Amino acid sequence: MFPPSSIPLRNLTVREISFKIRKADQVIKAHTSRATALFARSPTYVHDQLLHPAFRAVCEHFLVTEASTGEGEEKYTLRADPLLSSAVAFRIDPGARAQELHRDDVIHHNFSNPAITAWQEPRDLQREASLSMFVAATPSTKANGATRLIPQSHLWDADRRPEEDEAVPAEMQPGDALFMLSSCYHGGSENRTQDETRIVIASTVIRGILRQEENQFLSTPMAVLADYPEEAQRLAGFKTQFPGLGWVDFKDPMERWEEKGNSGKM
């Protein structure tokens, strides 16, 4: 899906990326490091992956939030477009243990969905809080820790628990992409190799009425933001959602910024 030139992390000497170790916990294990704030650090990532038409179309389909209110001539539709929640690259070195199977939408307390036997549209289009795209920057195999996931677990309710024998590895070659609804149970696998490092770039997008996991406003210098197209600026959250979510002085953030002469201040 993505040509090698669009994957800035294939070569770890790229100066715009640096991996940092995070203390091991239940989700991020030892021998795993992360590069955060890719929106600010890598224009290549923003232009070639985050704004890829296929990814934008999938986000638009599943994560637009609309609601009608009012009556008669006063009736109108509220719409909130998807927002970037986090942009992170993971490096899984030999010796990394497997993650527990988990759902990413727990971060938005998305526990109330009933179990369903099959996905139906438009009924289920408001079911998801977020979705992710995982792009392989190196070969991703069962041996070196490929993400394993449980197909159709997005149909489950919160009471059903995952079993390891239900999970399958998502093996990929560099440039391959995996799209995953955040209610799907998944987890990184153990890297059982001696010398293979697995690197994957994870882009997560949420509904525009939810709070972003990674704070894009503090992560992104305004001078960097200025060089991006408006589509990227607004995807990162520098916009209002109708009728008035996210304003600065009761104005759209980009309008306010332009009034300040793109000075880096709102």
Account of the protein in words:
This protein is an alpha+beta fold and 266 residues long. It has 7 helices and 11 strands. It has helices spanning 38-41, 43-50, 53-63, 216-219, 222-225, 230-235, 253-259, and strands spanning 20-21, 32-35, 65-69, 76-80, 83-92, 130-136, 148-149, 168-169, 177-181, 186-187, 198-206. The strands form 3 sheets. A 6-stranded antiparallel beta sheet has the order 1-2-5-11-6-9, with helices on one face. It is globular, with a radius of gyration of 19 Å. The two termini are 38 Å apart. Mean pLDDT is 88; it is low at 9-16 and 23-27.
Explain briefly what this protein structure is.
The protein has helices at residues 38-41, 43-50, 53-63, 216-219, 222-225, 230-235, 253-259, and strands at residues 20-21, 32-35, 65-69, 76-80, 83-92, 130-136, 148-149, 168-169, 177-181, 186-187, 198-206.
Rounded radius of gyration (Å): 19 Å
The rounded distance between the terminal residues' Cα atoms is: 38 Å
* Global shape: globular
Low-confidence stretches: 9-16, 23-27
Major sheet details: 6 strands, antiparallel
Can you list the strand order of the major beta sheet?
1-2-5-11-6-9
Helices and strands, in order, run as: EEHHHEEEEEEEEEHHHH
% residues in beta strands: 15-25%
Number of β-strand runs:
11
- Average pLDDT metric: 88
How many helices does DSSP assign?
7
Question: Roughly what percent helix?
Answer: 10-25%
Class of secondary structure makeup: alpha+beta
